[in-house]
Every structure is written in C-alpha cells, then in structure tokens.
Write a structure and sequence with these properties.
This protein has seven helices and five strands; from the N terminus they run H-H-E-E-E-H-H-E-E-H-H-H. By secondary structure, the chain is an alpha+beta fold.
Length: about 240
Amino acid sequence: MVWGLIENFRHALKYRGGWKGLYYHMYSNGDFPFKFGTYMGCDAMGNRYYENRVDYPFGQHRWVEPVDVHNFDATMVPPEWHGWMLSQNDAPPSQEDEHFENMKKRIQPSAPSDAPYNHNIGYQNEVFHFNGMHNQSQIRSRGYGIGNPIVGLPPHAPEAYYTQPGSPYNPAFIRKFEYKGDLDEAKGGGRPYKNDLWKERLMTAAEKQARDNPTGDLVTRKLTPREEAILARGGTIPTK
C-alpha cells in the first residue's frame, strides 16, 4: 500500500510537471492529480478530456480537467463532449470526422442530389460559445447599458437573450428615437422635444403668452362663474 502511494506520487509528479503542478491540482481538482488516462482532446474553451478503461470502473473512466478550475461548472462542458463523457457516443468529438467518413461508406444513394452535404450523420450547426456558456439565454445584461460582470458581458454590448419578433426589446423592432423639434433652434439648440406635450412643458410662461397672442393685443380675461352671475342680475363687476 505504501509502495503504491509512492508510485502514484512519482507518476503524478511526472504527469503534472513537478510539485507545483501537483499541488495546484490537488488543491483544485481533488483526486485528479492521481488520475491518469489517455488524452482524447479539448474543447473550444481549453478544457481537456481523458479516458482510462483499464484502471477505473465504468462511469469513472472518462473525465474532464477544466482550464480554469476556479470558475468552472458542469454547464461549461459542450453538449458534444458531455454526450461522450456519459458514454452516449463512442467516438469523441475530436474523432467525429473519421467516424463520419466510416459511416458514409454504408450509405447507398437512392437518387442523384445537388445538396451541399453528402450525409446526414450527426449534423450540427456552427458552434458558438461566450465565456464557456452554451446556453445563450444566460448572456443578458443585469440592467440597461451596464452589462453583466458575472458572465463577462461588457456595458452596452448586445445581448443573446431571445426576444419574440415584434417585441419592443427586439433590436430589429425598436423605434429609432427622433426629436420633433427644438425650442432654441435659432440659438443653436438646447431644448429639444419629441412631441407636443413635451414642447408644452418646456415652454416658459412668456413663450406661451406669445404663442396664444401673437399680435400683442390686450387679451380679454375670461369671466368666472360668479362674475357671469353678477352681470346676469344687472350688476357691475368691480375693477381692480
């Protein structure tokens, strides 16, 4: 037992590149420093995948060593590698092209075709990831224009959150903000407005009076209900 532990340390030192690499993996990955296998490939994020069918039982014979052990969770494993780790696929994604070529030999064309693909085995759309997240709905700003530091989305960057066509949150259906005019246009601008209600709020009392009485004539004051009642009884309205 002691000799086996010593051998594990000796192989781990060689496999991990010295004591620094061994201690780093011991601190971050648990038993990974003493787990050895055949390197099968890596994904777009740099996570490395291994396999050992001899020394480990089924279910533990495939594993991943993340590129960033301090910011890693299971969702950062791509679907194609996740299926391989769960033994859903025999060929890892790094060997899919060879697998496709072997399987295409079994296809017997029934008719001529001008399709761009000569097979329909394991077709996948173009893979896109953002900071290791394959669920694009997570790439969403935490507030208007502030981004999301949790997922690494910078401020004012476009989101990947899906919105229905016609939604006011869909960039293709957002109305362009345009001003209708400017009260200080003659002076170079300064009080723009986008509708008449906005214009009414920006106007001063003098501007409103000039608009209502452009000729400058004396404006007759509207009588109050009390004054109308006095005149109706033949009385006179006292002047101020």
